[in-house]
Each structure stands twice: as C-alpha cells, then as structure tokens.
Amino acid sequence: MTEPVHVLCLKWGSRYSAEYVNILYHSVRRHLKRSFQFHCFTDNPEGIDSEVHIHPIPEIDLPAQAMKGGWRKLCLFRNDLPMSGLGIFLDLDIAITGSLDEFFDFGSADQIPIIHNWVPWHKRIFRPDPQIGNSSVFRFQINQCKFILDQFHQEKDWALSTFRPPQSYLTHCIRSRMTYWPKEWVRSFKRHCCPIFPLNLALTPKEPKNCKILVFHGRPDPDEAIRGYKGKALRHSLRPSPWLAAHWKL
Questions:
Q1: d(C-alpha 159, C-alpha 134), whole Å
Q2: Do the Cβ atoms of 225 and 247 come closer than 8 Å?
Q3: How far out from the chain centre does Cα 58 lie?
Q4: Strands, E, within the chain: which ranges?
Q5: Other beta carbons within 10 Å of 180
Q6: Where are the CATH 3.90.550.10 domain residues in the chain?
Q7: Cα–Cα separations (whole angstroms), residue 192 to 128, 164, 239
Q8: How confident is the model at residue 122 (pLDDT cuts 50, 70, 90)?
Q9: Dist. CA 11–CA 17, nearest whole Å
Q10: What distance in Å separates the CA atoms of residue 37 and residue 28, rounded to the nearest whole number?
Q11: How far is 244 from 95, CA to CA, in rounded Å?
Q12: CA 145-95-166 angle, 5° bins
C-alpha cells in the first residue's frame, strides 16, 4: 500500500480562526485523490475538525517579535516531527481551485518546489523577477531538511537583521534544491485577479485560468474578497468576488 502524503498548516494567534483550518482541510479533501493526512500545528485547537491531526507548534529559538511572523515556519524543518514522508505546506489564507495531486508528482522527491514570488509590475520594468520564493506553498521531505534549521541557528542574528520578508531567507537556504512551481498553478489574487485602479471600482476580480491554488497575501483575505473589500485607499478597494465562494468553503 502506498504511504499517505502529508498536508501541513500552521495556526497561531487570533487573525485566522478555526474556520480557516477547516475550510483548508475540506478543500484538500475535494482536490487530492491520493491518500493523505492533514496536520495543523497550533497553539489553539478549539473548533478544528476532528479529522485534522492536531500538534503543538514545534519549538524554535526566536525573539518574541519574530514569533508573530513567517520566521516561525522554519520550525517545520526540525527532524522530529510526528510524521514522515513527502509533505506540502499550505498557508491558511489560500483558496484551492484545482487538483493537488500534481504538486506531489512535480519534479524529484528531493527537490523543494516553491512559488516564484510575485512583485508589482512597476518593479519589473528594468529588471527580471528576483529569484525569491514565496513560502505560501512549498513541498519537502519531512524530517529530512534539518539542514535549513541548522543553518539558521548558525547565522540567526545575521538572518533576522538581513532578510525581509522571512521567506527570502528560506530561499537562501534551499537554493541548491529549490525549483519553482509552474507559474500558472499558483497565482496571486492581488496580482492576477484584481483590476488596476480605477477599474477596481467598477470591475469584478476574475478567476485566473488553469490555476490550482490562489494565494492571498496582505489584504483582502478570502472571506473579505468574497464579500467585497473596502480598503483604506480607493485603489485597494474591490468589488465582491462571488465565484470565489465555490472554492473557499467547507
């Protein structure tokens, strides 16, 4: 029998409720055909679906201010997690819109596929996209990538003071094993769906073609995008995206 693959997420603090974990879990169930286990590392399991495997967040030596941000993802590269095999990490603020099976078949098992991070169009006029990954969706061999955490511990002060955002440090560590997901598989709601100002005030965001995972970075979050979002500035406001409700649901 083929060993199950693993889907991992992290939940801490109060920004994302248990509903986000449950929606992500049920979305994975709809879009992943092979046997899998879904794991949530969290400091508060209340309200999370009973079918989700709950674990405490692995310990990591970080200053208090860094514990609130993306640096905490590095804890997943310990070598003593309570599962093993091929795993994919998913941020909570995503919408799954297509098959996930290809994410486990892509490339070789020892590679670490990650999103090629998106930058605003005006920053790409005179230079190519920087070779930086976005850690909202990445795959790795669980308990076999401690070299990342070891490297961080050896250069922690330099890393914390040098890399912004934290995912650029992960790119730094995995460069020799890194590959990018096909660009059409993982898209940004902000970059690939939303009309530019002032068209955002009149036009509905559109679902990108051939997309399998839609990533929400910054605001709006998926539930805000469904309802419509009123930003602090008119250029950040968006009309409702009712098509998104077909994907982001229990």
A1: 17
A2: no
A3: 18
A4: 5-11, 36-42, 53-55, 85-90, 94-96, 112-116, 133-142, 178-180, 186-188, 213-215
A5: 16
A6: 5-182
A7: 18, 23, 15
A8: low
A9: 8
A10: 10
A11: 8
A12: 40
Decide if 186 contacts 211 (C-beta within 8 A): yes
**Pair 104, 233: CB distance under 8 Å:** no
Which residue, chain included where needed, has tokens 């890393």? 159
Which option is the CATH number for 5-182: 3.30.930.10, 3.90.550.10, 3.50.50.60, 1.20.1740.10? 3.90.550.10
Q: Which residues pair with 36 in a beta bridge?
A: 5
Encoding tokens for residue 83? 């599962």
C-alpha–C-alpha distance, residues 71 and 2, integer Å: 33
Query: In Å, how far are 33, 116, 136, 145, 194 from 170, measured between CA atoms?
Result: 29, 12, 12, 12, 28
C-alpha dihedral (194, 199, 202, 205), degrees to nearest 10? -10
Phi, psi of 195 (to 5 degrees): -65, 150
**pLDDT digits 0-9 by tens, 35-72:** 999 999 999 999 999 999 999 999 999 999 999 889 99
The verdict on pTM exceeding 0.85 is: yes
